[in-house]
Amino acid sequence: MKIIKNKEFLRSIAQQINLLNTVSGGVSETYVDIEKYNRGAVIKVWAAGVNPDAFKVVLHSNQLTIFSLFHSPENQEMAVPLFNKVFMLPPQVDISRIEALHQNGELQVKLPYHESTFKPQEIEIKQL
């Protein structure tokens, strides 16, 4: 049995195998939980081994997408998605106040409700 002595080659091939494993079905095990409160909701995402910088949160209209990308250490332009989750936001969510933070290995996306949701509003009755 021949031993490969070129360490750079071994590092390179190990990265390629790791990347191919991800492309070929290897996934990051993610846990998603949604906690609802009176004034809003919180989406909690925990993904084992995912760098906090790899998380992305994108809002388009009422669609919130949370995903993570694995970038090849040798070529930052080459990326593979580790997970992707799409949430349709209800109309009571105030999209201008959505916040995302990463703490203790967990991504939290806070979805506050509009203040008008909590205040009763009297509707004027018109005479015809």
Q: Can you offer a commentary on this structure?
A:
With 128 residues, this protein is mainly β. The chain has one domain: Sandwich (Immunoglobulin-like). Helix content is 13%, strand content 41%. It is built from one helix and seven strands. It has a four-stranded antiparallel beta sheet, with no helix packed on it. A three-stranded antiparallel beta sheet has the order 3-4-5. A hairpin with a 3-residue loop joins β1 and β2. The longest helix is centred in the first third of the chain and has 17 residues. The radius of gyration is 22 Å and the shape is elongated.
Question: Low-confidence segments, ≥5 residues, pLDDT <50?
Answer: none
- One letter per element, helices H and strands E, the order comes to HEEEEEEE
The major pleated sheet works out as: 4 strands, antiparallel
CATH class: Mainly Beta
Structural class: mainly beta
Which percent range describes the beta-strand content?
35-45%
Domains (count): 1
Count, helices: 1
Distance between the termini: 96 Å
What integer is the average pLDDT?
Answer: 81
Q: Could you state the oligomeric state of the chains shown?
A: single chain
- Taking Cα atoms only, what radius of gyration do you get, to the nearest Å? 22 Å
Query: At the third CATH level, what is the topology name?
Result: Immunoglobulin-like
Global morphology:
elongated
Helix content: 10-25%
The counted number of beta strands is: 7
- Placed side by side, the strands forming the largest sheet appear as 1-2-7-6
CATH architecture: Sandwich
